[in-house]
Amino acid sequence: MEATYRALCRHGYADLTMQAIADECDRSKASLHYHFDTKRELLDAFLAYLHDGFVERLDGVDEADPAARLVGLVDAALSGRDDGCEFGTAALELRAQAPYEPAFRERLAAFDESLADRVAAAVVDGVEAGRFRAGTDPAETAELVVTLVNGAHTRSVALDEPARESAARAVREHVAERLLADGEALAVGDPALREAPR
Amino acid sequence: MEATYRALCRHGYADLTMQAIADECDRSKASLHYHFDTKRELLDAFLAYLHDGFVERLDGVDEADPAARLVGLVDAALSGRDDGCEFGTAALELRAQAPYEPAFRERLAAFDESLADRVAAAVVDGVEAGRFRAGTDPAETAELVVTLVNGAHTRSVALDEPARESAARAVREHVAERLLADGEALAVGDPALREAPR
């Protein structure tokens, strides 16, 4: 799986071959085929592996305050592995393949669902705790946040802009100005606010 | 250009050839090469052509009320041509190529800039007219809207979800609940509200 990651970073999706993956882990192409009949099967397993890592990052967000947790979830979803690899490009290529590969589509949908579930749970907790306005819709908020995160990923790959930071800021403002109940505020010491001083 | 559009709908970007484009317009491949040395040059011209159509759709939004105009701009940006062609998939593939093709990246950035400029202008007008809250930041609002539109496009292709409508609704709510000044409302007869009764 790590060899697949490195091969995607190096070659992109369009030029990815079983040989390129084998080269990254000093195995033979035959030994890869022992485990995976086709490149599609290998990539399906790879998407499941990536999803595991994504969920692990989301579940590493352990802020007790629901507002801080929501912001932390967005930061976790927007952050990649800090290894200088241009993986975002390959990830967008994989997304563009989804219409041709139903199995990929399900795997990709799982990323959005995992994020949406946790955002919705933070909203429910925040409303219960009186941190978020009564009546804030968990599913709608989750939909907005997931769409923003998707947009930030696409823009950061396709346009080479600091779109991630700006999407994260948009969500922070959304939390601070629209979700928080009257009189509530993100804590001053909040990492979210330290990262984006305004 | 229309033949390129049809060829992309039929074959997707990965399998697009000059021959496929020639077949769509009953010309010879040689006659295409008379105008465009390479497929890259043809696609560069095609992106400029698409951008012209995009700007035309945006400039067809002529609501006098800045709030209705902002919602109309989002609807125009999210709507494609109503010809049953799966062009969104090819569009996402083109976006994924941007890191490899600097010329494409500039063309793609122009879509976002054209939308952002018009959203920011609607915000300026809305604040001046007292429709939007004083102090609403035009550039920040434009950034949020453009990121949402990008996210909706990506999700609607990759996940086969009704993401467009849900992003449009998120923007409408953003306008109605956060941008509008106290006491202002989207007009009851507003097409935006008719489309998304709540």
* Sheet with the most strands, sense and barrel status of chain A: none
- SSE string of chain A, helix = H, strand = E? HHHHHHHHHH
Total strand segments of chain A: 0
Category from helices, strands and their pairing of chain A = mainly alpha
Distance between the termini of chain A: 40 Å
Determine Rg of chain A (CA atoms, Å): 19 Å
The percentage helix of chain A is over 70%
What oligomeric state best describes the polypeptide chains here?
A: homodimer
Shape of chain A: elongated
Which residue ranges of chain A are poorly predicted, with pLDDT under 50 across at least 5 consecutive positions?
192-198
Describe the structure.
The structure is a homodimer. Chain A has about 200 residues and is mainly α. Helices cover about 70% and strands about 0% of the residues of chain A. Chain A contains 10 helices and no strands. Chain A has helices at about 1-10, 20-25, 30-35, 40-60, 65-80, 85-95, 100-130, 140-160, 165-180, 190-195. In chain A, helix 1 packs across helix 6, helix 2 (about 20-25) packs across helix 3 and helix 5 runs antiparallel to helix 7 (about 100-130). Chain A is elongated. Chain A starts with a helix and ends with a helix. The interface of A and B includes residues 13, 14, 158, 166 and 169 of A.
Concise overview:
The structure is a homodimer of 198-residue chains. In chain A, 70% of the residues lie in helices and 0% in strands. Chain A contains ten helices and no strands.
